[in-house]
């Protein structure tokens, strides 16, 4: 009898498995469930497990899987594991995973095993943060599973996801008897989450074996924490270790492209694009979006648009990236055109979100489209019911501030439903700088100092504003406050790529091995500033040009008010003469300095020195002719001016642009040119 029963069970098992293999709809599953019920097998855990697994894995129907589970009188450990695993795999259901585990513990039966704890721990940080992890950790110790490698790794990962418990995670990691690549990667990811890239990199270098997730962890960590040059360095190292097991995947490429976009390393971006194409990854929507974003940030808008147009399955992120790329470079009309194109597309799943409107508002800001920007803000809130975030308010305030509408900008700030932050007040401050509104600027900077009192940059701004207003007592008070608080100022930072190597520079940085050469080159820029300083109301020396922030227009205006401009220009020449090796930029600057202010003889002298130079890289530039001819014509030396113009075009084969011909016509004509004159000019060109 027993053998007959076993044969019947085996036959039923085979039938159930065969039916499940052919199932592709929930209705088929329900029919199978009814069949099992008629056979009295609805409470059999083996069949219930098969049904639950089919629901969660093949149909992704957690609701019906839970329905089957809840109708079981005595579900076993495997059923609990199946349900908790399904819930934990989706962050939105993390609370269901934890509550189901808690019910299991309260009932006392069945007992959790080592396979259930990793999935429970995965859900803990999303539900109760470190408190949940500690509760489960206690149960693990009581049940005696703390020495299992899979449980140890899960504990390290769970604690590392809570920034306050990174120390506990490291302690558990150090105590592990058998560390595998998963536990190493979990610890590295924990450090990158809290921004501790130093320890993350140190741990990464100590890894005995590295896999792709380990590389991704450190590359993504550097990118997310703004260490873009480090991310690119790790990516290049990964490229040198490429093997059958180590090859960049989707995550690697997306993170690398993001870092490249921030550093502007377009050539490396093109290399990755080639890799994507050769390896058939050009259909991956995430990689395509990353390419659009990278090309956009690097200013290669045509290439960004080309990648965008080739993407047959555009997601919202694709549209957002393209809109933002144009907005980032001030091409407001193109940005708006892409948005309108998006609204016309037939895909009903494409609906603008908050990111879309941030890009649109930025586009309107750069294009000075105040009313259109306001209309988009209203469209976002009224039509699409999107709650404005701090970034949206910052964009709107920036839009109004750049247009000089400060009262309206303040009304927007007062009407905000959330507390304004540095983005909002910084946006208002930018507009104040443009229009010289020291009253609003003072108010905005004070608000910024309230938000971050230790940021020395804000204090320096306030001191400069008081200086412009002549409030020197207030300047002294602010500087004393900065000194008492030991306020900091984040140094400026820039990157440059030379021979496939990234060089990173900070303000006043002298750590680069070629510092002496770099500063020697920068001295050329300092000399140009010295030329401009010849027109300023007080001398600017080479040692302080880094702190001189006046612009050329202001310097020229100050020059007009100087009683002795000739002496100032001669001083500029003396500064130039002290430089043993002069570059073209220096010669151009010196020529223009004399020509712009009517010292034709000195300008001609410098210009002839350029023509007599033995350095093949030193040749006259059209800018020199523009200034020199203008100077000669102003002093009624027309023939001499035309002679120099002819010399530069015939001797140096420099083809003047249309603006130069227009300039000559404007100088030579006695009357205002009309449409006929300008039309003839354009026809000739």
UniProtKB/TrEMBL annotation:
GO terms for biological process: RNA modification. GO terms for molecular function: RNA binding. InterPro entries: E_motif (IPR046848), PPR_At4g14850-like_plant (IPR046960), PPR_rpt (IPR002885), TPR-like_helical_dom_sf (IPR011990). It holds the Pfam family PPR. It comes from the Eukaryota. Keywords: Repeat. SUPFAM superfamilies: TPR-like. PPR repeats lie at residues 76-111, 180-214, 284-318. This is Pentacotripeptide-repeat region of PRORP domain-containing protein. It comes from Citrus unshiu. The lineage of its organism: Eukaryota, Viridiplantae, Streptophyta, Embryophyta, Tracheophyta.
């Amino acid at each position: 009898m027993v053998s007959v029963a076993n044969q019947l069970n085996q036959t039923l098992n085979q039938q159930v498995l065969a039916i499940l293999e052919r199932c592709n709809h929930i209705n088929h599953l329900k029919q199978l469930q009814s069949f099992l019920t008629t056979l009295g097998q609805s409470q059999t855990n083996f069949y219930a497990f098969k049904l639950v697994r089919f629901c969660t894995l093949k149909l992704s129907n957690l609701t019906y899987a839970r329905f089957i589970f809840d109708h079981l009188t005595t579900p076993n450990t495997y059923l609990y594991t199946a349900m908790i695993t399904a819930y934990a795999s989706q962050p939105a259901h993390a609370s269901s995973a934890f509550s189901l585990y808690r019910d299991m513990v309260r009932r006392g039966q069945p007992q959790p095993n080592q396979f259930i704890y990793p999935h429970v721990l995965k859900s803990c940080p999303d539900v109760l943060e470190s408190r949940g992890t500690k509760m489960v950790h206690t149960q693990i110790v009581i049940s005696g599973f703390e020495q299992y490698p899979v449980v140890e790794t899960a504990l390290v990962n769970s604690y590392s996801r809570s920034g306050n418990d990174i120390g506990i995670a490291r302690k558990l990691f150090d105590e592990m008897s058998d560390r595998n690549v998963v536990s190493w990667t979990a610890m590295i990811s924990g450090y990158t989450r809290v921004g501790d890239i130093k320890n993350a990199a140190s741990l990464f270098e100590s890894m005995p074996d590295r896999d792709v997730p380990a590389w991704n962890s450190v590359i993504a960590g550097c990118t997310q924490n703004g260490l873009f040059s480090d991310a690119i360095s790790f990516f290049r190292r990964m490229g040198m270790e490429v093997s059958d097991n180590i090859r960049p995947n989707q995550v690697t490429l997306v993170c690398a492209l993001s870092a490249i976009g921030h550093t502007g390393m377009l050539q490396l971006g093109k290399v990755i694009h080639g890799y994507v194409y050769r390896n058939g990854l050009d259909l991956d929507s995430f990689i395509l979006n990353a390419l659009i974003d990278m090309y956009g940030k690097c200013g290669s808008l045509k290439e960004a648009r080309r990648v965008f147009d080739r993407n047959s399955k555009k997601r919202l992120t694709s549209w957002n990236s393209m809109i933002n790329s144009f907005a980032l470079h001030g091409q407001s009309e193109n940005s708006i055109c892409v948005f309108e194109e998006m609204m016309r597309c037939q895909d009903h799943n494409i609906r603008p979100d908050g990111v879309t409107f941030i890009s649109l508002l930025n586009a309107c800001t750069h294009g000075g489209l105040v009313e259109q920007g306001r209309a988009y803000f209203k469209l976002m809130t009224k039509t699409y019911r999107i709650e404005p975030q701090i970034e949206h308010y910052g964009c709107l305030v920036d839009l109004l501030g750049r247009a000089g509408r400060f009262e309206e900008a303040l009304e927007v700030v007062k009407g905000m439903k959330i507390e304004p932050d540095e983005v909002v007040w910084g946006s208002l401050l930018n507009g104040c700088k443009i229009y010289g509104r020291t009253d609003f600027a003072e108010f905005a900077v004070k608000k910024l100092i309230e938000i971050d009192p230790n940021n020395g940059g804000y204090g320096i701004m306030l001191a400069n504003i008081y200086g412009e207003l002549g409030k020197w007592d207030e300047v002294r008070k602010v500087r004393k406050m900065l000194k008492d608080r030991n306020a900091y100022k984040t140094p400026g930072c820039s990157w440059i790529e030379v021979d496939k190597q990234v060089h990173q520079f900070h303000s006043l940085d002298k750590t680069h091995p070629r510092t002496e050469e770099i500063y020697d080159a920068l001295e050329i820029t300092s000399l140009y500033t010295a030329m401009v300083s010849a027109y300023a109301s007080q001398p600017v020396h080479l040692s302080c040009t880094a702190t001189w922030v006046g612009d050329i227009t202001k310097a020229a205006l100050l020059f007009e008010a100087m009683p002795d401009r000739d002496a100032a220009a001669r001083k500029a020449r003396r500064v130039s003469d002290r430089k043993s090796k002069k570059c073209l930029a220096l010669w151009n600057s010196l020529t223009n300095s004399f020509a712009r202010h009517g010292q034709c003889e000195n300008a001609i002298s410098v210009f002839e020195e350029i023509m007599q130079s033995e350095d093949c890289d030193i040749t006259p530039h059209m800018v020199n002719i523009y200034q020199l001819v203008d100077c000669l014509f102003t002093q009624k030396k027309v023939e001499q001016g035309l002679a120099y113009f002819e010399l530069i075009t015939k001797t140096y084969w420099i083809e003047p642009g249309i603006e130069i011909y227009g300039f000559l016509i404007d100088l030579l004509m006695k009357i205002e040119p009309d449409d006929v004159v300008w039309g003839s000019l354009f026809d000739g060109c």
